[in-house]
Amino acid sequence: MTRSGRTRLLAAVGAALALTVTAPVTAGGATAATGKPVVGECRQLTVDQAAAGSNPINPIACSSPHNARVIAVPTLPKGVTYADIGAAKLDKIATRLCYPAFRAALGQTDRVRNMSAYGFLYFQPTAQQRAAGARWLRCDLRLRHGATLATLPTDRKPALRGTVVPAGVRRCLAGKALRITVCEASHRYRAAGAVKVDLKRYPGRTKLVRIGRQRCPAVVTTDADFRFTWNSKTVWNVAHDRTLICYNRS
After folding, report:
1. What is the pTM of this model?
2. If you count Cβ atoms within 10 Å of the first and of the last residue's Cβ in the chain, which end, N or C, has fewer?
3. Cβ(69)–Cβ(101) below 8 Å
4. Where are the chain's structural domains?
């Protein structure tokens, strides 16, 4: 998950039967000298804004359409400053700090959550805010829609009220690149089920492809044409979300 720019938001790595699902990235500010944002703030982000490292745009009324909502504003671990960490370290810290809020915002189990197109973004303070001593991190909930972000359909918590994920937020794969999107949009593959993989450390692409080929046929109905995805190495090792998602041809 050490990606820069737009690829951090959109990239899914893989080919043939396997894709790698990336968990969200980035972080930003909003008020006073250190710009500390507030949980519950809503924003309407462009793709470029969502892919940036910082996001100083002002929040909007949550009664207006919005595609991002702040779900947590944690502080960097004691003794850690932004000057101490690079992109890879920040990604691990953000996953550790944001993922509990992401789980709480959606509710349900990892398997159910991974059947949805929800994800999270993280933003660090701007350079000016960091110079003023800001050590916060902003965690935003967002809903993937191919190359863009979808409007969040609800601000309730938990967002998922049951084990059956509705089409408006259910995970599908669209286009030649098989980007994650909601199933109400045009798509090629639809999430059929999710399985937990009992491996504590990220096993690597080769092994995950083998696992997907072994386990997904029991989940999908389009036996001759299915796909599967899994979470990034960082999410796997840091958040311990070791879920593999199987998709039917739609």
Report:
1. 0.86
2. C
3. no
4. 7-249
